[in-house]
Amino acid sequence: MKRLLKFTLAAVVASLIVACTTSPTGRSQLNLFSGSALNSLGAQSFAEIKQQERVSDDRELNAYAQCLADAIVAVLPEQFQGREWEVAVFESDTVNAFALPGGYMGFYTGIMRVAENEHQLAAVMGHEVGHVIADHSSERLSTNLLISGALIGADIAFSDRTPQQRAMIMAGLGLGAQIGVMLPYSRTHESEADEIGMDLMARAGFDPREAPKLWENMSRDAGSSPPELLSTHPSPQTRIRALTRQLPEVMPLYEARLASHGPANCPRPAKLDRPSGS
After folding, report:
1. Which of 84, 136, 180, 245 is the most buried (most CB within 10 A)?
2. Interval 46-100: pLDDT, tens
3. Side-chain-side CA neighbours of residue 139 (13 Å)
């Protein structure tokens, strides 16, 4: 039994070592899932969202979203440029956007209105694409898998306790995993995606000085929010400070782009200034 346990532990350790990767910012990651599996999940999720949401047929809004997407894709690492990215606009007041593994981007008209110009919307989509190129989906799934395995092992280890004791122990371990592991990981991913997104928007010809302004807008409109410790995202104030600190690093990239190719040319449609449904 001990030999089997040692062999199992050795196999787990070996798999974790093989699965260790590095994010675009140099952070160590654990990725247990293949790219093809994530791409399939991305395609499935995108198809489901298109069934659940109203896909906009507005030519001007779709052209705006496509222009932004094309500009960002053009500066991605080579492995992400070799695929055809599918872009959709969803008629919804939801203030959100997303990018999925496999080459999918979605813009909700709610975020297209909140973003006051193309630079701010590029900051949003640069952030979302940052999640994709940093393999955050794989890292999150991998972490969830390890935590689930650890909790199952703990449940077995405490099988000699009374049902009430086991319930209390497992509840405590689950809460500890959520607050001590999952939420910090999520906030790390969000901050890293902000950093990557700001780099991408600058290289694509969008003014990175608009990224902190976007979060000032979001903070003004957000109202009350949970404490950052208990949130999956950093607070708007934390994001504004981090993005502002990053400006000296990315402004030379933006200025080099202006000198070589000029700014990105994706003008925001005037209709986005009108209230939804008008």
Report:
1. 136
2. 999 999 999 999 999 999 999 999 999 999 998 887 778 999 999 999 888 999 9
3. 23
Contact 96, 110 (CB under 8 A): yes
pTM for the predicted model, two decimal places: 0.76
Contact 105, 87 (CB under 8 A): yes
Residues 6+ apart with CB under 8 A from 27: 188, 192
- What are the C-alpha distances in Å from 107 to residues 46, 92, 98, 156, 270? 12, 9, 7, 45, 17
Question: Could you give the number of structural domains in the chain?
Answer: 1
**Are the beta carbons of 115 and 137 closer than 8 angstroms?**
no
In 19-157, alpha helices (H): 35-52, 59-73, 78-81, 109-114, 118-133, 136-157
Among candidate residues 119, 110, 38, 40, the one with its CA nearest the CA of residue 72:
119
Q: Is residue 27 part of a domain?
A: no
22 in any annotated domain: no
Locus of tokens 């209105």: 113
The parts of the chain modelled with pLDDT lower than 70 are 1-20, 29, 33-35, 142-185, 221-232, 275-278
Determine, yes or no, domain membership for 15.
Answer: no
Q: How far is CA 256 from CA 24, 121, 224, in A?
A: 21, 21, 40
CB atoms within 10 A of CB 237: 12
**What does the alpha-carbon distance between residue 86 and residue 233 come to, in Å, rounded to a whole number?**
26
Contact assessment for residue 97 and residue 78, using Cβ atoms and an 8 Å cutoff = no
Active-site choice (78, 91, 128, 195): 128
Contact call for residues 158 and 166 (beta carbons, < 8 A): yes
Q: Which domain holds residue 206?
A: 33-273
Identify whether 17 is part of a domain. no
